[in-house]
Every structure is written in C-alpha cells, then in structure tokens.
Input
Amino acid sequence: MASVQERVKEVTARVLKVDPGRIKPTDNFAADLGAESVQSIELVATFEEEFGIEMDEEEALSVDTVSSAAEFITKVCREQGVEV
Amino acid sequence: MTTLNKTHPLVDTTEPNLLEDTFDYNLPPLIHFEDHPAIEYIDGEPVEFDFNSVKSRDIVVTDTTFRDGQQARPPYKVEQMVKIYDMLARLGGPNGVIRQTEFFLYTKNDRETLERCRALGHKYPECTGWIRAVKGDFRLVKEAGLKETGMLTSSSDYHIFDKLKFKSRKECMDSYCEVVDAAFEAGVRPRCHLEDLTRADIDGFVLPFVERLMEMSSQVPDEQSVKIRLCDTMGFGISYPNAKLPRSIPKLIYKLNRELGVPSDRLEWHGHNDFHKVHANAATAWLYGCNAVNGTLFGFGERTGNPPVEGAIMEYIALKGDLCGIDTTVIRELADYMRSIGLPIPDNYPFVGKHFNTTRAGIHAGGLRRNERIYNIFDTAKLLGRPPRVAITDKSGADGVALWVNEFFNLKGDQRISKIKVHKLARWVMDQYEVEHRLTAISDEELEAKTRELMPDYWAKYKG
Output
C-alpha cells in the first residue's frame, strides 16, 4: 500500500489539477499549490473519502502543508482505527 | 481648546465581553443614557433634558396608516383596513403601545370602516377622526361617536397666505380658534395639526396660537383639552444639538411643553422622510418631551413617507428595556399581508424586507455559522419569525452554502452539517460563476434541486 504521504500527494494532484511530480512535502496548499477556498474544502472531503475517516472541520482546515496533512491524517486514522 | 492626554491601557482578557447588558439578543439592542441630563442652550440659557425619564413616561405610538398612509397609494378596501386595524391592536398589545389611529369620515366606506373596526371590541388603538378645519365637519365626528379628531391648522406663512389665502395671521388664527370652539361645543377633543411647523414663524405665529389654545382649553374639561400634533410636513426637522428654530426638534418641543405648558401627553410628533431623517427625528421627539410619535406601517405615506410604526415599536422596546406586551411577530404578519395587497416593500427594508437579514458575503456567512449573533441584529427568528438567511452568490463560499443547507434542513446545534459535507454543492455554485459565467444570485429553488441531487443521503434523512 502506498504511504499516507503518497496518497495525500495523489489526492492533492487530482483535486488541485497539478502534476503530482511537482508536489513537495513542504508545499503550502494555498500559497504554493494554488488551492482556493472551495478547493480546500474539496481536499478535506476527498481525504476523508480516500482514507475512510471523519475529520474535524476546523482542525482539518487549519492544516496547511502536504507533510502536516499527512501527519494529521495518520493521527486521525490511528484514533479512528483505520489501518494505513 | 484644551486637549486631554488620556492613556488607554489594554484590558486584556481570555473571555469575550459581549456587552450583553446592551446587546441582549432576546430584545432589540437597548438604549442606555448617562445618569446626568442632556443640556441644550435655548435663548442663551442651559436647559436640562432627562432622557432617562422616557422609561417611566407613557410614550406611545399613534397610527395614521389609514390617513397619511392612504394618501400615498390606491384606497384600501374596507375589509383590508379592518384586518390591518386588528393586527395593529395585536402588535401594540394590551397596554396600548399603539394608542390611537385616525380615520377619514367623509364617505360611506370611511364610516363603515370605522364601525367595523370598533365592532372588533379592541380597547386599543383608540379610533379618532381626521377632518378639515371646517366647523360643519364636527357633525361627522359627533355622528360617528368619536371623542377626538385631528384637524389641519397649518402654521407656516406658505400655507396661511399662499394655500389658505388668509389676509393676515390674525384672520387665520381667529378662523382656527372658531373651529376649535366648534369642537368644544360638539363635546369633541380637537387635535390641532400644526402643518409645516418646521418652516413656520415660531415666535410670530405658532407660540401665540398655541398659547391661545391653552387658554381656551382651560375653560373646558380636561378630556377635551386641545392636543397638538407637531407636523414636520416636509421633513425639514433636525435633531442635532444647537440647531436653530424652526427646524430644531428639541427647541420646538421645549417651547410648547415647557414654555407654554402643553403637557407631554398632549404632544404628538408627525414627520416625513424627505431628508432620510424620519425615524431618528421621531425618536428625538420622544426624548425631548413629546409623548406620542405618529407613523404609518412601513413608512408609507405622502411623498417619502412617515415614521415607520414598526421602527417606532422597536425603538420603544429599546428605550423601555422590555417588550411591554408588544407582540413583535405581528410585524412580519403585517408585512406579509401588506405585500399581498400590493404594498411594495423593498428587499433591503429593515425588519421586513425580503433580504433584511440575508448575508451574501462568505466571510459573513462564516461568522453566522460560528455564532448567529455576529451578523444578526437580534434574535430575528424569535422576535420577527425570520431566522438569518444567506443568499448564495459567487461571494458565498462554502460557509454560505453550509449555512443555507443547514437552514434548509432546519438543523441546529450538533446536528448541523459541516462545510466539508457540502463540498459538491459548493463546487456546483462556484462553477456557476467561474465556468458558466453566471451573473445572477442562485435561487432557493435551484439550490433545493441541486441539494437533492448532490446530497441524496442527507435529503433522504431530513426531507425524505
């Protein structure tokens, strides 16, 4: 199974319509990858679908980089008993 | 002029101060005055006005929807006036905050309206008449069994000389006083409407006239003493401190109330909105000693209209600090009814406009989602039957869409759907503008259809 970070990159590329090869862990979703308001919501929703988890809206939307998203999702998966 | 160098250290806190002694969400925001009186210089002398007295004074609203209000639109049908009168009674409550209303008396319809309103048996609003300042018209008042009637006693030289064609002010005053005498003889209380007061020669005509009316009133029982309606016919009245007569509302009321001794409960303010001042001017009149404010529903009246009755009602509650028996939900009923009979209320009209508490900006919608009080003036759902709404446009964002969806499904508290869950609907909205280049707001009907399509599980759960 692909790592959490790889899956986060793949979802990000799909939602934001960017080349996955371009995405770096330190990239900020808004500043570096051009995520606008609705796209940020779509990212969180797609992460939820991808990983089968429910995220707190405010906490999820405060995560701003690819690597911190991977960390946050890993934590939530552990809390919700989802294997990654 | 000295400047005070005061420092203002930050008062830090980790708990928000929501100023709830003023912004009690269950009422319109309360109006608090300082403990010391306001001072206005009048004729070179400082005069004190205790605004806190408004809490204990019997301030009231009087209505002229069927008179001035009817001058600005096609005539109401009898049954329409009876229904509106019934709702005015419910709005003002058992304490008669809406104390009186006035009716024409000239036609068969006028008289039938009055009869049917009185047959409803409401103590308030009391029914009064409105007639020309013509002696013979008192017959109509007496036949109708009314105890009080308004009559025009125009007070500016524009009216005295140019409209009424009197040869002198004395001739005019004598003519008015003859009619007042006729009122007394008929056993009716005359309410003299000082038309165009804010453009009149106050010292030269108005004060001598009212002085004479007071003297005449001293000869009759108290319940017949003349009432005075201060008519700001052209909207020239000004509330500002230090404004001069004849436009200064504080000075006008002071002259009548304290110099001439007309009691506050026999003074009534009637304004017009030609300079956007109508509501503030009416509230000012209350503060400076005029107990009654005369208005029309939703401000509809001659030209730019009159003090809106519903505005005066909200101001009343804010000044008194209590509902005082008023049923504010009737304001919405009245608006719905008036629209149904053709009264055009603008969408952004306070308290009753279709979008008076609709937010369009996404950032405002975000605030509303966190705490309704952030962008809603008071509990509009409770007081007006109108929860805050969001209009969906290109500015709404996911916050706006989430707010709309939660309101549509009537979800509260923990039941509310997060904005993450509405992402498909939010995307559809955004694409309407960015991809389809739409220019208009998205209607509720469209959003309902799309919600059903894009959020089928929620639809089934809450609408199924």
Q: What stands out?
A: The longest helix of chain A spans residues 37-51. The mean pLDDT of chain A is 95. Chain A is about 55% helix and 0% strand.
